[in-house]
Design brief:
The protein has two domains: 210 residues, D-Maltodextrin-Binding Protein, domain 2 (3-Layer(aba) Sandwich), CATH 3.40.190; 106 residues, Periplasmic binding protein-like II (D-Maltodextrin-Binding Protein, domain 2, 3-Layer(aba) Sandwich), CATH 3.40.190. The protein starts with a helix and ends with a helix. The protein is an alpha/beta fold and 341 residues long. The chain is built from 14 helices and eleven strands. α5 runs parallel beside α6. β6, α7 and β7 form a beta-alpha-beta unit. Keywords: Signal.
Length: 341
Protein backbone atom coordinates (compact mmCIF):
# COMPACT_ATOMS: atom_id res chain seq x y z
CA UNK A 1 0.00 0.00 0.00
CA UNK A 2 3.03 2.28 -0.25
CA UNK A 3 2.47 5.39 -2.31
CA UNK A 4 5.05 5.90 -5.10
CA UNK A 5 7.37 8.88 -5.14
CA UNK A 6 5.64 10.19 -8.27
CA UNK A 7 2.29 10.33 -6.51
CA UNK A 8 3.94 11.92 -3.49
CA UNK A 9 5.32 14.64 -5.72
CA UNK A 10 1.89 15.25 -7.25
CA UNK A 11 0.30 15.54 -3.83
CA UNK A 12 3.08 17.87 -2.72
CA UNK A 13 2.58 20.16 -5.71
CA UNK A 14 -1.14 20.23 -5.14
CA UNK A 15 -0.58 21.31 -1.57
CA UNK A 16 2.02 23.99 -2.23
CA UNK A 17 -0.30 26.63 -3.62
CA UNK A 18 0.25 30.38 -3.05
CA UNK A 19 -3.17 30.68 -1.41
CA UNK A 20 -2.14 28.28 1.31
CA UNK A 21 1.07 30.19 1.92
CA UNK A 22 -0.80 33.52 2.19
CA UNK A 23 -3.10 32.20 4.91
CA UNK A 24 -0.30 31.33 7.34
CA UNK A 25 1.54 33.91 9.45
CA UNK A 26 4.18 31.44 10.69
CA UNK A 27 5.08 27.87 9.81
CA UNK A 28 8.73 27.57 10.86
CA UNK A 29 10.17 24.35 9.43
CA UNK A 30 6.76 22.88 8.57
CA UNK A 31 5.68 22.06 5.04
CA UNK A 32 3.64 24.71 3.21
CA UNK A 33 0.32 22.97 3.89
CA UNK A 34 0.76 23.43 7.64
CA UNK A 35 0.79 26.42 10.01
CA UNK A 36 2.46 26.91 13.38
CA UNK A 37 1.10 30.21 14.63
CA UNK A 38 1.28 29.15 18.29
CA UNK A 39 5.01 28.39 17.98
CA UNK A 40 4.96 24.84 19.39
CA UNK A 41 6.79 23.50 16.27
CA UNK A 42 3.93 21.19 15.24
CA UNK A 43 1.06 21.78 12.84
CA UNK A 44 -1.89 23.80 14.13
CA UNK A 45 -5.37 22.39 13.70
CA UNK A 46 -7.15 23.66 10.56
CA UNK A 47 -8.80 27.04 11.02
CA UNK A 48 -11.78 25.91 8.94
CA UNK A 49 -13.87 23.37 10.95
CA UNK A 50 -15.01 21.79 7.68
CA UNK A 51 -11.42 20.51 7.26
CA UNK A 52 -11.57 18.43 10.46
CA UNK A 53 -11.57 14.68 9.83
CA UNK A 54 -13.66 12.21 11.80
CA UNK A 55 -12.99 8.79 10.23
CA UNK A 56 -15.26 5.87 11.10
CA UNK A 57 -12.19 3.59 11.35
CA UNK A 58 -8.91 4.67 12.92
CA UNK A 59 -5.70 3.33 11.41
CA UNK A 60 -2.80 2.76 13.80
CA UNK A 61 0.77 1.52 13.31
CA UNK A 62 4.17 1.31 14.96
CA UNK A 63 7.58 2.11 13.54
CA UNK A 64 8.92 -0.64 11.22
CA UNK A 65 11.69 -2.09 13.38
CA UNK A 66 12.44 -5.78 13.86
CA UNK A 67 9.52 -8.17 13.23
CA UNK A 68 6.33 -6.15 12.47
CA UNK A 69 4.13 -9.06 13.60
CA UNK A 70 5.55 -8.82 17.12
CA UNK A 71 4.33 -5.26 17.49
CA UNK A 72 0.98 -5.81 15.83
CA UNK A 73 0.23 -8.37 18.55
CA UNK A 74 1.88 -6.33 21.32
CA UNK A 75 -0.32 -3.29 20.70
CA UNK A 76 -3.58 -5.25 20.49
CA UNK A 77 -4.57 -4.43 24.11
CA UNK A 78 -4.06 -0.73 23.45
CA UNK A 79 -6.01 -0.91 20.20
CA UNK A 80 -8.91 -2.47 22.09
CA UNK A 81 -8.73 0.31 24.68
CA UNK A 82 -8.59 2.94 21.95
CA UNK A 83 -11.73 1.46 20.42
CA UNK A 84 -13.45 1.66 23.79
CA UNK A 85 -12.46 5.30 24.35
CA UNK A 86 -13.30 6.55 20.84
CA UNK A 87 -16.19 4.28 19.93
CA UNK A 88 -14.47 3.57 16.60
CA UNK A 89 -12.96 0.51 15.03
CA UNK A 90 -9.14 0.57 15.16
CA UNK A 91 -7.07 -1.44 12.70
CA UNK A 92 -3.32 -2.04 12.60
CA UNK A 93 -1.57 -1.08 9.35
CA UNK A 94 1.80 -2.78 8.87
CA UNK A 95 4.38 -0.53 7.20
CA UNK A 96 7.67 -1.70 5.72
CA UNK A 97 9.72 1.50 5.91
CA UNK A 98 9.92 4.83 7.71
CA UNK A 99 9.20 6.76 4.52
CA UNK A 100 6.10 4.63 3.82
CA UNK A 101 4.81 5.35 7.33
CA UNK A 102 5.30 9.10 6.86
CA UNK A 103 3.66 8.95 3.41
CA UNK A 104 0.65 7.17 4.91
CA UNK A 105 0.00 9.89 7.49
CA UNK A 106 0.69 12.67 5.02
CA UNK A 107 -1.84 11.23 2.58
CA UNK A 108 -4.49 10.83 5.29
CA UNK A 109 -4.45 7.01 5.34
CA UNK A 110 -2.86 6.80 8.79
CA UNK A 111 -4.32 8.52 11.86
CA UNK A 112 -2.23 7.43 14.86
CA UNK A 113 1.32 6.09 14.77
CA UNK A 114 4.52 5.40 16.60
CA UNK A 115 7.45 6.95 14.72
CA UNK A 116 11.12 6.14 15.29
CA UNK A 117 13.12 8.84 17.04
CA UNK A 118 14.90 10.18 13.95
CA UNK A 119 11.98 10.04 11.48
CA UNK A 120 9.72 11.83 13.99
CA UNK A 121 11.05 15.14 12.65
CA UNK A 122 10.01 14.22 9.11
CA UNK A 123 6.60 13.08 10.36
CA UNK A 124 6.08 16.42 12.14
CA UNK A 125 7.30 18.68 9.33
CA UNK A 126 5.94 16.81 6.32
CA UNK A 127 2.99 14.72 7.54
CA UNK A 128 1.36 16.89 10.20
CA UNK A 129 2.10 14.43 13.00
CA UNK A 130 1.57 15.77 16.52
CA UNK A 131 3.64 13.76 19.03
CA UNK A 132 2.01 13.35 22.44
CA UNK A 133 3.71 10.45 24.20
CA UNK A 134 6.53 7.94 24.45
CA UNK A 135 6.65 4.68 26.40
CA UNK A 136 7.62 5.08 30.05
CA UNK A 137 6.75 4.74 33.72
CA UNK A 138 5.08 6.99 36.27
CA UNK A 139 8.37 8.83 36.90
CA UNK A 140 10.08 9.12 33.53
CA UNK A 141 9.97 8.38 29.84
CA UNK A 142 11.66 5.27 28.50
CA UNK A 143 14.86 6.25 26.77
CA UNK A 144 17.65 4.50 24.95
CA UNK A 145 21.28 4.99 24.11
CA UNK A 146 23.24 4.83 20.93
CA UNK A 147 25.58 1.89 21.46
CA UNK A 148 28.31 0.61 19.18
CA UNK A 149 28.54 -3.16 19.13
CA UNK A 150 31.34 -5.43 17.95
CA UNK A 151 31.87 -9.16 18.32
CA UNK A 152 33.28 -10.06 21.71
CA UNK A 153 36.22 -11.89 20.16
CA UNK A 154 37.11 -8.98 17.87
CA UNK A 155 40.18 -6.78 18.50
CA UNK A 156 38.17 -3.52 18.55
CA UNK A 157 38.17 -1.78 21.94
CA UNK A 158 37.30 1.86 21.10
CA UNK A 159 35.85 3.90 18.26
CA UNK A 160 39.21 4.87 16.66
CA UNK A 161 39.89 1.14 16.21
CA UNK A 162 37.14 1.11 13.56
CA UNK A 163 39.02 3.23 11.05
CA UNK A 164 38.95 1.50 7.68
CA UNK A 165 36.58 -1.21 8.94
CA UNK A 166 33.10 -2.29 7.80
CA UNK A 167 30.67 -0.27 9.92
CA UNK A 168 26.90 -0.51 9.36
CA UNK A 169 24.57 2.42 9.93
CA UNK A 170 20.85 1.67 9.73
CA UNK A 171 19.11 4.29 7.56
CA UNK A 172 19.67 7.95 6.76
CA UNK A 173 16.85 9.19 8.99
CA UNK A 174 17.68 7.08 12.03
CA UNK A 175 18.85 9.01 15.08
CA UNK A 176 20.92 6.37 16.84
CA UNK A 177 21.65 4.46 13.64
CA UNK A 178 23.02 7.38 11.60
CA UNK A 179 22.48 10.98 12.72
CA UNK A 180 23.86 10.71 16.25
CA UNK A 181 26.96 8.78 15.15
CA UNK A 182 27.77 11.47 12.60
CA UNK A 183 27.34 14.15 15.25
CA UNK A 184 29.01 12.40 18.21
CA UNK A 185 31.74 10.15 16.81
CA UNK A 186 34.12 12.90 15.59
CA UNK A 187 34.78 14.02 19.18
CA UNK A 188 35.70 10.41 19.94
CA UNK A 189 38.27 10.29 17.14
CA UNK A 190 36.19 8.67 14.39
CA UNK A 191 34.56 10.47 11.46
CA UNK A 192 31.84 8.51 9.61
CA UNK A 193 32.23 8.75 5.85
CA UNK A 194 35.92 9.66 6.15
CA UNK A 195 37.47 7.16 8.54
CA UNK A 196 35.18 4.41 7.28
CA UNK A 197 32.69 3.92 4.45
CA UNK A 198 29.12 4.09 5.74
CA UNK A 199 27.20 0.92 4.86
CA UNK A 200 23.41 1.07 5.33
CA UNK A 201 21.78 -2.09 6.67
CA UNK A 202 18.19 -0.75 6.59
CA UNK A 203 17.17 -1.55 10.17
CA UNK A 204 18.70 -1.89 13.63
CA UNK A 205 18.04 -5.63 13.82
CA UNK A 206 19.76 -6.14 10.47
CA UNK A 207 22.80 -4.26 11.75
CA UNK A 208 22.91 -6.46 14.87
CA UNK A 209 22.54 -9.64 12.82
CA UNK A 210 25.16 -8.39 10.37
CA UNK A 211 27.73 -7.90 13.13
CA UNK A 212 26.80 -11.29 14.55
CA UNK A 213 27.36 -13.00 11.20
CA UNK A 214 30.56 -11.12 10.42
CA UNK A 215 29.14 -9.08 7.54
CA UNK A 216 30.05 -5.94 9.49
CA UNK A 217 32.85 -5.28 11.96
CA UNK A 218 30.72 -2.93 14.03
CA UNK A 219 27.40 -1.09 14.10
CA UNK A 220 25.82 1.82 15.96
CA UNK A 221 22.35 0.69 17.06
CA UNK A 222 19.62 1.59 19.53
CA UNK A 223 20.27 -0.05 22.89
CA UNK A 224 16.60 -0.96 23.40
CA UNK A 225 16.42 -2.84 20.10
CA UNK A 226 19.60 -4.76 20.95
CA UNK A 227 18.28 -5.62 24.41
CA UNK A 228 14.93 -6.86 23.08
CA UNK A 229 16.65 -9.03 20.47
CA UNK A 230 18.80 -10.59 23.19
CA UNK A 231 15.82 -11.13 25.50
CA UNK A 232 13.92 -12.91 22.70
CA UNK A 233 16.91 -15.14 21.98
CA UNK A 234 17.49 -13.77 18.48
CA UNK A 235 21.11 -13.11 19.46
CA UNK A 236 23.23 -13.86 22.52
CA UNK A 237 24.27 -10.62 24.23
CA UNK A 238 27.41 -12.34 25.56
CA UNK A 239 28.65 -12.71 21.97
CA UNK A 240 29.02 -8.92 21.69
CA UNK A 241 31.02 -6.12 23.28
CA UNK A 242 29.77 -2.53 23.58
CA UNK A 243 32.61 -0.10 22.88
CA UNK A 244 30.62 3.15 23.06
CA UNK A 245 27.46 4.34 24.80
CA UNK A 246 25.84 7.78 24.26
CA UNK A 247 23.68 9.90 26.57
CA UNK A 248 19.98 8.92 26.80
CA UNK A 249 17.57 9.69 23.93
CA UNK A 250 13.74 9.43 23.93
CA UNK A 251 12.27 6.34 22.28
CA UNK A 252 9.72 6.28 19.48
CA UNK A 253 7.10 9.02 19.61
CA UNK A 254 3.39 8.34 19.38
CA UNK A 255 1.51 10.94 17.36
CA UNK A 256 -1.87 11.70 15.84
CA UNK A 257 -2.70 13.50 12.60
CA UNK A 258 -3.11 17.25 13.13
CA UNK A 259 -6.44 17.57 11.31
CA UNK A 260 -8.51 15.07 13.26
CA UNK A 261 -11.69 16.40 14.88
CA UNK A 262 -10.85 18.12 18.22
CA UNK A 263 -13.27 15.91 20.16
CA UNK A 264 -11.60 12.82 18.66
CA UNK A 265 -8.14 14.16 19.52
CA UNK A 266 -9.24 14.61 23.11
CA UNK A 267 -10.43 11.00 23.23
CA UNK A 268 -7.13 9.81 21.74
CA UNK A 269 -5.15 11.85 24.28
CA UNK A 270 -7.22 10.40 27.12
CA UNK A 271 -6.62 6.87 25.85
CA UNK A 272 -2.85 7.40 25.85
CA UNK A 273 -3.00 9.07 29.28
CA UNK A 274 -5.15 6.45 31.02
CA UNK A 275 -4.03 3.15 29.45
CA UNK A 276 -1.77 0.87 31.51
CA UNK A 277 0.29 -1.83 29.84
CA UNK A 278 -0.67 -5.41 30.75
CA UNK A 279 2.18 -7.74 31.86
CA UNK A 280 2.94 -9.11 28.37
CA UNK A 281 3.13 -5.61 26.94
CA UNK A 282 5.44 -4.52 29.77
CA UNK A 283 7.68 -7.48 28.97
CA UNK A 284 7.79 -6.59 25.28
CA UNK A 285 8.69 -2.98 25.99
CA UNK A 286 11.37 -3.40 28.63
CA UNK A 287 9.34 -2.65 31.73
CA UNK A 288 7.45 0.39 30.46
CA UNK A 289 3.96 0.31 31.94
CA UNK A 290 2.28 3.33 30.34
CA UNK A 291 2.54 6.14 27.80
CA UNK A 292 4.47 9.11 29.19
CA UNK A 293 3.34 12.56 28.03
CA UNK A 294 5.87 14.60 26.02
CA UNK A 295 5.99 17.53 23.61
CA UNK A 296 7.94 17.67 20.39
CA UNK A 297 9.26 21.18 21.14
CA UNK A 298 10.82 20.26 24.48
CA UNK A 299 11.58 16.55 24.40
CA UNK A 300 12.85 16.32 20.83
CA UNK A 301 15.18 19.31 21.23
CA UNK A 302 18.32 17.18 21.53
CA UNK A 303 17.34 15.15 18.47
CA UNK A 304 16.81 18.28 16.37
CA UNK A 305 20.15 19.60 17.64
CA UNK A 306 21.95 16.45 16.49
CA UNK A 307 20.30 16.65 13.07
CA UNK A 308 21.20 20.33 12.72
CA UNK A 309 24.83 19.72 13.71
CA UNK A 310 25.33 17.43 10.74
CA UNK A 311 23.28 19.46 8.24
CA UNK A 312 20.32 17.09 8.22
CA UNK A 313 17.03 18.81 7.37
CA UNK A 314 13.59 17.38 8.02
CA UNK A 315 12.41 18.55 4.61
CA UNK A 316 11.17 17.21 1.29
CA UNK A 317 14.68 16.53 -0.01
CA UNK A 318 15.63 14.66 3.14
CA UNK A 319 12.54 12.46 2.98
CA UNK A 320 13.10 11.67 -0.70
CA UNK A 321 16.68 10.67 0.05
CA UNK A 322 15.50 8.42 2.86
CA UNK A 323 12.87 6.82 0.61
CA UNK A 324 15.45 6.24 -2.12
CA UNK A 325 17.85 4.55 0.28
CA UNK A 326 15.08 2.36 1.67
CA UNK A 327 13.96 1.38 -1.85
CA UNK A 328 17.51 0.48 -2.85
CA UNK A 329 17.93 -1.62 0.26
CA UNK A 330 14.63 -3.45 -0.32
CA UNK A 331 15.57 -4.16 -3.95
CA UNK A 332 18.95 -5.52 -2.91
CA UNK A 333 17.38 -7.72 -0.27
CA UNK A 334 14.81 -9.06 -2.77
CA UNK A 335 17.56 -9.82 -5.28
CA UNK A 336 19.56 -11.68 -2.65
CA UNK A 337 16.52 -13.70 -1.62
CA UNK A 338 15.74 -14.57 -5.25
CA UNK A 339 19.32 -15.67 -5.79
CA UNK A 340 19.23 -17.82 -2.65
CA UNK A 341 15.98 -19.47 -3.77
Amino acid sequence: MTVGLGLMAAVYLAWTSPSLADECKNRGSLDVIFCDEDGDLVADAPKDPSKFRDPSTLVFTYTPVEDPAVYRDAFKPFQDYLEEKTGKKVIYYTVQSNSAEIEAMRSGRLHIAGFSTGPTGFAVNLAGAVPLAVKGTEKEFQGYNLIVIVKKDSPYQSLPDLKGKKVAHTSQSSNSGNLAPRALFPDQGLIPGEDYEVLYSGKHDQSVLGVNSGDYDAAPVASDVFTRMAERGVVNADDFRIIYRSPKFPTSSFAYAYDLKPELIQQIREAFRDFRFPPEMQKTFGGADRFFEITYKEDWGVIRQIAKSIGEEYDRKGLDQMAQKEAEKAAKKAAEKKKAD
